[in-house]
Design goal:
This protein is of the alpha+beta class. Helices cover about 30% and strands about 20% of the residues. Strand 1 (about 45-55) and strand 2 form a beta hairpin. Helix 2 (about 75-90) packs across helix 5, helix 3 crosses helix 4 (about 135-145) and helix 12 (about 405-410) runs parallel beside helix 18. The longest helix is centred in the middle third of the chain and has 18 residues, at about 290-305. The chain starts with about 30 loop residues before the first helix and ends in an 11-residue tail after the last helix.
Length: about 575
């Protein structure tokens, strides 16, 4: 479920019309009204709905002037009265309201679980009352509104009458049986009573800045926008495709009652809505509660009516999670142009009698992207290091195992580090899409465009590229250089015990630019391949003359283990690389 938290706020304003009838307003769409009326049949109760399009003034009413139990939605009017008294100087947000064992109440909220006594600021109690619907906090706020129980209730109720809400009343403190009266209203409605039309009057005044003043109204909207219970009004709204969409609302739920009232604002439509469900048979406390789903569907139908949308589904838009660490952040991107999935391994792969099926070995389309604090473009372009992992590994495993992020930090070099996903934990060197013409170019371009979309870089221009590979990652690395259509951008290749075959494909790239560098560190088991390459290189030099002889080629043997060759070497090579240094921290 999408939570609507933060400092953004959405506002609803609805028409203050009072009548004894519950018909749709003349400018309402009859088809929509019929749909809204039918929602009551989905949960076996009754429903009341009021909505107003703030852009056009159109209204939608279904049983909007009938009285309903409010449950915790009455906490919105309580907050309004509290802010009126704060503005008048009768109370202070900094004043302490004492939580004790005697005033902790069950139901919703967290204060009931506090041990012993605790001093709480009134302003914090208001926040808990709205965002977590905390019952103990609610009673602390009510207690601040007057000297006697009668005076506390009267303060809020008289304020509602003054504001034009003739059917909205607080009837008791929350969960307080000692103060509950046996009045007809209290017996019928519990702690509070209201109508959908009353609630939108209150919300419209808040949206217009008419509750106390514009600043205070905005503060209350901000609190409502931090609501943590979002299974009704916000539940089916298209947040993923509407960046400006925010909901500021207050819910209520008890036994057979489900209520949600609030403000919805976006760049597409602005409307206010109040939905009351009563006599609800489904008592499940979950998002699939039928009454809560009916409220969510009603809101989405209203949204669709005023925006032109036609579905109840929320769009399946992929979002990227960024994980922060002391020197930067990383994310796992899922791409169309990653090495896999690919038709070459659609049926899996067998090596030495062991079969590696497509799932999970060849259907992971991810790339891990690491961006350090202080990264900046050079000459308007992005410098990258793209690493291909070896056999029986994966991109997250390579990031964890070889300390390449830490070595990049130590080198103080300025580049985006990418861990490509090759065959996932399989004995296989195949490069998938990297073995196609332009495969590497498509891969890099998509990554940079995603980083533009994520607002991590200003544009997708490709700067200097270093291609790195460990062990079996040699094959996609070599194909990236030879057929990936980015050879003019690739300035260096780092091979960590990854010189198994196809090394003749490096020769055209080495001949193309004097500044190109090939670095390879290898253990004894690849000594023969390096010797063969040196012989091949010698012949090529004689044919190519001076140009190839100036290419910088560094082949280094080592006695360390196969999985130890990256440790320290990556940092050393970065220090000597073409990459710029990070800008000094301010």
């Amino acid at each position: 479920m999408r939570r609507c938290n933060g400092l953004l706020f959405l506002v609803f304003s609805l028409l203050a019309v009072h009548s004894s009838q519950s018909f749709a307003s003349p400018n309402s769409d009859s088809t929509l009204i019929a749909q809204l009326n039918k929602l009551a049949n989905t949960f076996g109760g009754r429903i009341g709905i009021a909505a107003k399009n703030l852009n056009t003034g159109d209204t939608l009413f279904v049983n909007a002037h009938e009285k309903f139990p409010t449950a915790s939605a009455i906490k919105l009017p309580i907050m309004v009265e509290c802010f009126h008294q704060l503005a008048a100087g009768k109370i202070s947000g900094e004043q302490i309201v004492a939580l004790t064992d005697s005033n902790k109440w069950g139901g919703s909220g967290i204060l009931q679980y506090f041990s012993g006594s605790a001093p709480i600021k009134l302003a914090d109690a208001v926040m808990l009352m709205i965002t977590l619907s905390d019952n103990s906090a609610t009673n602390l706020v009510i207690d601040a509104l007057g000297n006697s129980h009668k005076a506390k209730l009267a303060a809020m109720n008289n304020r509602m009458l003054e504001l034009g809400l003739r059917d909205t009343r607080l009837l008791n403190k929350v969960m307080s049986w000692k103060t509950k009266k046996n009045s007809p209203e209290s017996l019928r409605y519990g702690i509070g009573v209201s109508t959908p039309s009353d609630m939108i009057v209150l919300l419209e005044k808040m949206w217009r800045g008419e509750l106390v003043n514009a600043t205070v109204s905005k503060q209350m909207i901000d609190i409502l926008s931090r609501q943590q219970y979002n299974s009704m009004i916000p539940h089916l709204l298209p947040f993923e495709s509407t960046d400006s969409l925010v909901v500021a609302h207050k819910t209520g739920s008890v036994t057979g009652v489900r209520v949600d009232v609030g403000l919805v604002l976006s760049n597409r439509v602005k409307f206010a809505v109040a939905i009351f469900c009563d006599e609800v048979r489904d008592q499940r406390d979950s998002e699939d509660n039928l009454a809560e789903l009916a409220a969510a569907k009603a809101t989405r139908l209203i949204w669709n009516h005023w925006t032109g949308d036609s579905t109840l589904d929320r769009p399946n838009v992929e979002r990227v999670d960024w994980y922060a660490f002391p020197a930067g952040e990383w994310a796992k991107l899922y791409l169309h142009n990653s090495p896999f999935p690919d038709s070459s391994r659609a049926q899996g792969h067998t090596y030495e009698g062991k079969f590696y099926p497509k799932h999970p070995h060849y259907d992971d389309s991810s790339a891990v992207v690491v961006m350090l604090d202080g990264y900046h473009q050079v000459n308007g372009a992005n410098d990258l290091i793209v690493h291909f992992h070896g056999w029986n590994n994966d991109n997250l495993g390579a990031m964890e195992q070889f300390g390449m992020v830490q070595q990049l930090i130590q080198s103080k070099k300025n580049a985006i580090l990418v861990f490509a996903q090759g065959p996932y934990r399989a004995a296989d060197s195949h490069g998938g899409k990297m073995e196609r013409d332009g495969g590497f170019k498509n891969f890099v371009e998509e990554i940079l465009q995603r980083l533009v979309d994520e607002r991590r870089v200003p544009n997708a221009a490709i700067g200097r590229v270093i291609v790195a590979a460990h062990s079996g990652g040699y094959r996609p690395a070599i194909n990236a250089v030879s057929s990936g259509q980015l050879s003019e951008k690739i300035r260096e290749v780092f091979l960590f015990d990854a010189f198994y075959a196809l090394y003749d494909k490096f020769l055209p790239w080495l001949s193309s630019r004097n500044e190109n560098k090939l670095r390879s560190i290898y253990t004894e088991h690849l000594a023969g391949e390096h010797k063969e390459f040196m012989g091949m290189l010698k012949k090529q030099k004689l044919a190519a003359g001076k140009k190839l002889s100036q290419a910088k080629i560094y082949l280094t043997s080592t006695a360390v283990c196969h999985d130890c060759v990256i440790d320290g070497t990556f940092e050393e090579w970065l220090m000597e690389s073409c990459l710029d240094e990070m800008a000094p921290s301010k």
